[in-house]
Amino acid sequence: xxxxxxxxxxxxxxxxxxxxxxxxxxxxxxxxxxxxxxxxxxxxxxxxxxxxxxxxxxxxxxxxxxxxxxxxxxxxxxxxxxxxxxxxxxxxxxxxxxxxxxxxxxxxxxxxxxxxxxxxxxxxxxxxxxxxxxxxxxxxxxxxxxxxxxxxxxxxxxxxxxxxxxxxxxxxxxxxxxxxxxxxxxxxxxxxxxxxxxxxxxxxxxxxxxxxxxxxxxxxxxxxxxxxxxxxxxxxxxxxxxxxxxxxxxxxxxxxxxxxxxxxxxxxxxxxxxxxxxxxxxxxxxxxxxxxxxxxxxxxxxxxxxxxxxxxxxxxxxxxxxxxxxxxxxxxxxxxxxxxxxxxxxxxxxxxxxxxxxxxxxxxxxxxxxxxxxxxxxxxxxxxxxxxxxxxxxxxxxxxxxxxxxxxxxxxxxxxxxxxxxxxxxxxxxxxxxxxxxxxxxxxxxxxxxxxxxxxxxxxxxxxxxxxxxxxxxxxxxxxxxxxxxxxxxxxxxxxxxxxxxxxxxxxxxxxxxxxxxxxxxxxxxxxxxxxxxxxxxxxxxxxxxxxxxxxxxxxxxxxxxxxxxxxxxxxxxxxxxxxxxxxxxxxxxxxxxxxxxxxxxxxxxxxxxxxxxxxxxxxxxxxxxxxxxxxxxxxxxxxxxxxxxxxxxxxxxxxxxxxxxxxxxxxxxxxxxxxxxxxxxxxxxxxxxxxxxxxxxxxxxxxxxxxxxxxxxxxxxxxxxxxxxxxxxxxxxxxxxxxxxxxxxxxxxxxxxxxxxxxxxxxxxxxxxxxxxxxxxxxxxxxxxxxxxxxxxxxxxxxxxxxxxxxxxxxxxx
Length: 815
Known about the structure:
This protein is of the alpha+beta class.
């Protein structure tokens, strides 16, 4: 063993610079891959850690009227309740200096000292939360700070009134000082209607001041965030809270309950693609780095193997020579792996990415011990596995170049065919260089380069195909559940059939409409956002059905794919449905895709999340919140073939006066993309960015091949010049080499990549509960052929120039 260590020491002394470069390659490539892998884990877990750090609630409850008359105190004493934080929405809006409203939003204040301190603690981006006893201090979420152009220290003029219309002399003005910019659980990825607007957090002192000065008119709404005890279920708590509400007349006897875990799941689903993209990038980067670093390590072993026959003659065994080579690579890999861990830690402040970066409760340097330890061990193990066979082969006492010379070299059939067909000599020589790896000191990593380039092409084609399907979903309302053209959505107010007839009856292009109500129901223990729909004029407008039909009686229901999976049911079976405290058995008659139907700050429907009933089922709760009999929304359909832009303009003019009278910002809605789709709008560039990164890695592999070819085939290029080739022809040989290699990679990678992209989209669509309907961007995929070939030849420009300028006399002077 002493001889092995002496041989290793001699090799490191002789080629320490080359081994140091290899260690640096391992450090940079391995560190980048480890940083991406750790970042993927950090991104995926950021929102859950945010919820833990903020002491997030489990349930949000809000009475139809108010719970401030003793209901919340009674609710806090229920056995299921661990912590309760009441909140009051104030009739206040930000004002410009001339008294006009700056933007819509919500202003909320804690009814006591619990909210923001013991429950639902926001993340501070700057400043602090308002002090409970300071009525002149407010904090603003990051959406409000961006919309209203605020920062810590800004003065914000606000106006309040006892009810609409909130204009002119009816407004009482206050000047508030912004003391903090915050991120709340709802503003990380806005889910509900109220999450998507500016949120201003006032103090308890302002709440009491307004109550004293204005009386009950100051209150826009109130509710309570509730942390339930371990083992308690949101539905069981909801039933008890509903029963308790009937004992307090001030609540109106009706209660809205939102399961906050449903909203958290929506946010996590929107963040997960970013984490998956990072994980894929880490995997592909690691594979590409292995091709490059592995070839570099093998080249070093080949360079050091020239003395192996002599060492074998002096008594060293093949096992000892192999061990020496593995120790050299292993020691370098260990040093590189330790440096890679350092690189990953140094890069950790760049993570997480996307919305998760906003949610990250502990930004900055992060040490993921599990990932970094696994990455370090993997770097050493994989690199040793990569060089094990070459080290064993090179350790043979008979491996000298003589054996390589004696062995017949496999010739490229493609090059032979081109030669027989009379192709130009430059084409034949280029194809031969591309497909024949050579032997001994002239060997080049053709197979590795081809595999790396094909893998890059495959990944890029798959990313483009997946991205095209994502864009197709974003632009196809039918795929995300919206089978109508527009909706009149009044949220907590009602519209009667007679009013609808007056508004829509004479609008050009309108062919029919259906009525509906919002609601929340219990389905086999789950709290599920629901809609109830009934025909108005023409056929029933219903969310897109994947299976079955819409409900037609009060004991039928259609559910989203995710809900069916959670409760373990399918179409045709029965479920227990709880509506306003009433339990009944309903038959599942359909599986639907739901667009966005949201009510205030309560969880909206979302793709596979939701339930559809008849309007009569939800009518009691809708009547309690509205201003009389009627419905909360109307689904409007235009006549087929009619010009949609003109019809929409006509509809907008018809309802403008009505919407202004009810002061409802969501009155006319033409785009009901659910959160599961809207959140992907912000990441629709992720597949393209990932594709670009993968393309760069593929070009790096190709560039390495061209550089190595230029160095190891210098003798071949010199002979070509001696035989009469000019510089232009040498350039042409290199161009044919690159074109042949990339062409073969495209031939393999494009169809496999498109198929992989379609298959991935089908899995993705099935998981979301939407019609898969995969599409293939044929034009884009075919465009990759000339683009990849041109870019590859661009990468080969400088190596080709170097080969064309070499001096045959200098290269062949030892011949």
